[in-house]
């Protein structure tokens, strides 16, 4: 009896990940062109790309917002998300990775692994997303596949399994040798379809050597391949393909391909690799969630199960408010009633759309494994779970990163204050990493985000979307506080008697900084009370009160982090003790204890990678030192110097302009968060 294949096995949900300017958007555009989805190749420098459709993306030449597209290749449906490469928009990458089954990591053949390449790789590690690597820009001067692979091995620590050998170098790069099939693919000057042929004679010996190295690397990590390798001293193409697929999906190896997306060379083999090696929705573990407030439940990718999906992006555009949803189980049809499990409300799905960046195709239904946009769901926020009202399920949402930079914003005309509040609320709704608050002391509206560029883009969106004219203050960083020297045996009694039942709580606290292994961030609470002097339910109340106290520190009202609090003793009153009394004692007691500690102000720092001409190194190093930067290393790369340093984030405001002036416009830099470090004593507390 012939079995019908499950259509979900022919679906691939993948993202394109990379450092800024590594070529991810160009790779995406060439994929759309190769699959026949577009008839003309979009170019980043011309502002004609499909996925970078926002006016700011085209003006700045970078990807800012994750864009979803859909295409077909070799009988498979590929749902693809082009993610940002700039560190300020890492939260867009985080939300995308939460709903993806696989990814293509793009690397520059000249630069190899760059700072943000490493950051997005670690994000994918946290989500357990299998990856294949594509070494791009092999046609550039200084391109070196082996050096790029070496940086992948050294900085990312996977086992790179190189399945291609370049034909030609730099400007003479014309094709690749497929080491699995031992065939060559050569592209002509018209950059059309590749010609499949035998391995060029001058590369045969090198191809055989590399094929042997690939077989040995695979056999070392795959039991079935090892058995065949021991029996036959070689691996068949079928065995090698199966082993590469297994190693990719388990994370024990990373298949490495190469090419030049700009010249349209290497895209078809990349698509073949996506289909062959990356998982379908059926190959990933079942999603887990909380069922009706009870224990955990898992849902498989089965259209027959109750509907459950996760909203990972919300966009209010010209077509109305759209919620982008990854469907994990069940079937969603137009007109269905769905439940927002977190908010506890139901809404009707007005439309279901197949997404093509800023264009859409209407669908009557979508099934498990699909990534679609839905209209009509007005309350859902990024991270919300939509599910069948008859079978509620709450999925774990992606965690939004804490903001590190703030600016004060206000409408230029007082009559526009309401419009500004509405515009800011819409921004925060679409991007959870943007936080809007009112400063209690100044009454100013403060917009906080992940970086200077992040806030610039947000403010520009208000203007371009028809919002009011806005005045923006100088950026400020988000400080934290910690303790350098703690206190032991700090006694606090909370006694309140104002008629009727009173409040009584007595606690004794030890406060100390976390050890160096734990870093300067975090909070640990534990109880060392013996003999039941403080009942367990009151211990939990004390911990809750201590966490309340962390919101404002003694130096300048900044959040407190990096400390350990131990409840060592206490006592209760037979009538007046309660959860409320002990929570209050924990809050006020820790605040008083912090004032008795040696407090330290912490400031956010960033790892900065600066690429400058060799003749400008001295001036750039001096400027970094003036910005309190600690240079960690330097290396030469193709006539330029690459400097890495840890610099306080507050000192990086305006650095782009300064660097351009010192290097006659030839210097570039990238940053990524590096945590917090003690601020100098002269830094203002507020």
From TrEMBL:
Query: SUPFAM superfamilies, alphabetically?
Result: EF-G C-terminal domain-like, P-loop containing nucleoside triphosphate hydrolases, Ribosomal protein S5 domain 2-like, Translation proteins
Q: Where is the composition biased (Low complexity)?
A: 670-686
Q: Does the keyword GTP-binding apply?
A: yes
Q: Give this protein's Gene Ontology molecular function annotations.
A: GTP binding; GTPase activity; translation elongation factor activity
A Gene Ontology biological process noted in the UniProt record is:
ribosome disassembly
Segments of this protein annotated with the region Disordered: 664-686
- GO cellular component term of the entry, any: cytoplasm
| Pfam families registered for this protein in UniProt | EF-G_D2, EFG_C, EFG_III, EFG_IV, GTP_EFTU
Q: Where is the Tr-type G domain?
A: 9-282
List keywords of the entry alphabetically. Cytoplasm, Elongation factor, GTP-binding, Nucleotide-binding, Protein biosynthesis
Enumerate the subcellular locations listed in this protein's record, separating them with semicolons.
Answer: Cytoplasm
Q: Where does GTP bind?
A: 18-25, 82-86, 136-139
Signal peptide (from-to): none
InterPro entries the UniProt entry points to: EF-G-like_DII (IPR053905), EFG_II (IPR041095), EFG_III (IPR009022), EFG_III/V (IPR035647), EFG_IV (IPR047872), EFG_V (IPR035649), EFG_V-like (IPR000640), G_TR_CS (IPR031157)
Q: Which CDD domains match?
A: EF-G, EFG_III, EFG_mtEFG1_IV, EFG_mtEFG_C, EFG_mtEFG_II
Record's keyword annotation contains Cytoplasm: yes
> According to its UniProt record, which protein family does this protein belong to?
Belongs to the TRAFAC class translation factor GTPase superfamily. Classic translation factor GTPase family. EF-G/EF-2 subfamily.
What does it do?
Answer: Catalyzes the GTP-dependent ribosomal translocation step during translation elongation. During this step, the ribosome changes from the pre-translocational (PRE) to the post-translocational (POST) state as the newly formed A-site-bound peptidyl-tRNA and P-site-bound deacylated tRNA move to the P and E sites, respectively. Catalyzes the coordinated movement of the two tRNA molecules, the mRNA and conformational changes in the ribosome.
Put simply, this protein is called: Elongation factor G
């Amino acid at each position: 009896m012939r079995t019908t294949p499950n259509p979900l096995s022919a679906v691939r949900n993948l993202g394109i990940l990379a450092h800024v300017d590594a070529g991810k958007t160009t790779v995406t555009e060439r994929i759309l062109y190769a699959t026949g989805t577009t008839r003309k190749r979009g170019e980043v420098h011309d502002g004609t790309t499909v996925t970078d459709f926002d006016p700011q993306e085209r003006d700045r030449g970078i990807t800012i917002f994750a864009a979803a597209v859909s295409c077909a290749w070799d009988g498979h449906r590929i749902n693809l998300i082009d993610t940002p490469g700039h560190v300020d928009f890492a939260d867009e990458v985080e939300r995308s990775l939460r709903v993806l089954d696989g990814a293509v990591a793009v690397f520059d053949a000249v630069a190899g692994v760059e700072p943000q390449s490493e950051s997005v790789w670690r994000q994918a590690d946290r989500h357990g997303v299998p990856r294949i690597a594509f070494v791009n820009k092999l046609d550039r001067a200084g391109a070196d596949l082996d050096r790029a692979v070496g940086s992948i091995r050294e900085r990312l620590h996977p086992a790179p399994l190189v399945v291609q050998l370049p034909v030609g170098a730099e400007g003479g790069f014309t094709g690749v040798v497929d080491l699995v099939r031992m065939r060559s693919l050569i592209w002509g000057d018209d950059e059309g379809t590749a010609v499949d042929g035998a391995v060029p004679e001058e590369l045969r010996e090198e191809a055989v050597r590399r094929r042997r190295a690939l077989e040995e690397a695979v056999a070392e990590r795959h039991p079935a391949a090892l058995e065949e390798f021991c029996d036959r001293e070689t691996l068949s193409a079928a065995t090698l393909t199966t082993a590469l697929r297994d190693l990719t999906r388990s994370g024990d190896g990373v298949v490495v391909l190469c090419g030049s997306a700009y010249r349209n060379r290497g895209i078809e083999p990349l698509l073949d690799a996506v289909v062959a090696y990356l998982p379908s929705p059926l190959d990933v573990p079942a999603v887990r969630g909380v069922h009706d407030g009870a224990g955990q439940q898992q849902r498989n990718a089965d259209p027959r199960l109750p509907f459950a999906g996760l909203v990972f992006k919300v966009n209010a555009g010209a077509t109305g408010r759209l919620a982008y949803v990854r469907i994990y189980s069940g079937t969603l049809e137009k007109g269905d009633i769905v439940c927002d499990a977190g908010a506890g409300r139901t809404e009707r799905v007005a439309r279901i759309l197949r997404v093509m960046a800023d264009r859409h195709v209407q669908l009557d239904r979508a099934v498990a494994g699909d990534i679609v946009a839905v209209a009509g769901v007005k309350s859902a926020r990024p991270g919300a779970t939509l599910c069948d009202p008859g079978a509620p399920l709450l999925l774990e949402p992606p965690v939004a990163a804490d903001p590190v930079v703030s600016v004060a914003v206000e409408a230029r005309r007082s009559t526009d204050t309401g419009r500004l509040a509405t515009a800011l609320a819409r921004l925060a709704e679409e991007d959870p990493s943007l936080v809007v608050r009112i400063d209690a002391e100044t009454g100013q509206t403060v917009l906080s985000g992940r970086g200077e560029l992040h806030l610039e883009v947000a403010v520009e969106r208000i203007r371009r979307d028809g919002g009011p004219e806005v005045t923006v203050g100088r950026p400020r960083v988000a400080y934290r506080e910690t303790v350098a020297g703690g206190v032991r045996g700090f006694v606090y009694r909370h006694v309140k008697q104002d008629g009727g039942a009173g409040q009584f709580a007595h606690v004794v606290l030890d406060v100390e900084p976390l050890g160096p292994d734990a870093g300067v961030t975090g909070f640990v609470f534990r109880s060392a009370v013996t003999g039941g002097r403080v009942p367990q339910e009151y211990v939990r109340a004390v911990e809750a009160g201590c966490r309340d106290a962390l919101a404002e520190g003694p130096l300048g009202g900044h959040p407190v982090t990096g400390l350990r609090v131990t409840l060592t003793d206490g006592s209760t009153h037979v009538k007046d003790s309660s959860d409320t009394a002990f929570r209050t004692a924990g809050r006020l007691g820790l605040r008083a204890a912090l004032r008795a500690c040696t407090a330290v102000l912490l400031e956010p720092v960033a790892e900065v990678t600066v690429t400058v001409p060799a003749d400008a190194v001295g001036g750039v190093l001096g400027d970094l030192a003036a910005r309190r930067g600690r240079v960690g290393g330097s290396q030469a790369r193709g006539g330029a110097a690459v400097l890495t340093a840890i610099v306080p984030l507050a000192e990086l405001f305006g650095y782009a302009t300064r660097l351009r002036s010192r290097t006659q416009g030839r210097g570039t830099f990238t940053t990524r968060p590096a945590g917090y470090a003690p601020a100098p004593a002269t830094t203002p507390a507020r």
